[in-house]
Amino acid sequence: MAILMEGAAWIVFISLFNVLILNLTPDWVRARVLAVSLLVFQGAVAAGSAAWGALAGRVGIQNALLWAGVGTVATAVLWLFLQLPNLNIDVTPWIHWPMPRIVNGTVGANADVAGPVLVTVEYDVIREKTSEFLDAIREYGRIRRRDGASRWAVFRDLETECHYLETFIVDSWAEHLRQHERFTQADRAIEERVHSYTRSQPMVRHLVFAE
User: 153 - beta bridge partners?
Assistant: First the structure.
């Protein structure tokens, strides 16, 4: 009976954990996140089985099971520090950025190979809100990298007070266009928080590598 209850609890846990991952993942990356999650989960099961088997061979099966039971009970307190994320997060797309206007028409059909692309965003920050802006923009940078950017950074202008420049690189022009579709409703609050510390709307520029 105990084995039956343990098996049922194991199946319920796996099902709920996978549903949690699917609900917290945006559509465009859901398959990859689930694949990595299953890889790590199954790999951990295999590695744990080998480790506990090796331990049982040294200290005996009874002692290994005793230590495993103590470890299982001890991990129950982790919920105080590692609680599951909020399921109410809205990961539906929030496509609000205007599409960049290309003046020379050279990208067009070569969107997949045109690049890398350098995107710069200029912010005129309120002086009293500088520290809050930097905290928010760093969190914004995490979203940029999540959506496909690399070499993200923010710079302070030495000649113009409270003028900051955000930069990041994307592999190709097509990849940058996909970024416009990867921004979610949950990210909206972070962007609005960044803009609330500025005097005006940021100025965005797009630069393609000149071959």
Answer: 167
Q: What domain range includes position 170?
A: 108-208
26 found inside a domain: yes
Quote the number of domains for the chain: 2
Residues 41, 119 within the same domain: no
Contact 149, 167 (CB under 8 A): no
Helix axes 185-195, 130-146, angle to 10 degrees: 150
Looking at the structure, do residues 114 and 179 belong to the same domain, yes or no?
Answer: yes
129 and 192 part of one domain: yes
**pLDDT at residue number 118:** 92
94 in any annotated domain: no
pLDDT in tens, 92-120: 767 667 666 666 655 555 655 577 889 99
Question: How many of the other CB atoms lie within 10 Å of CB of 191?
Answer: 16
pLDDT level of residue 195 (50, 70, 90 thresholds): very high
139 and 203 inside one domain = yes
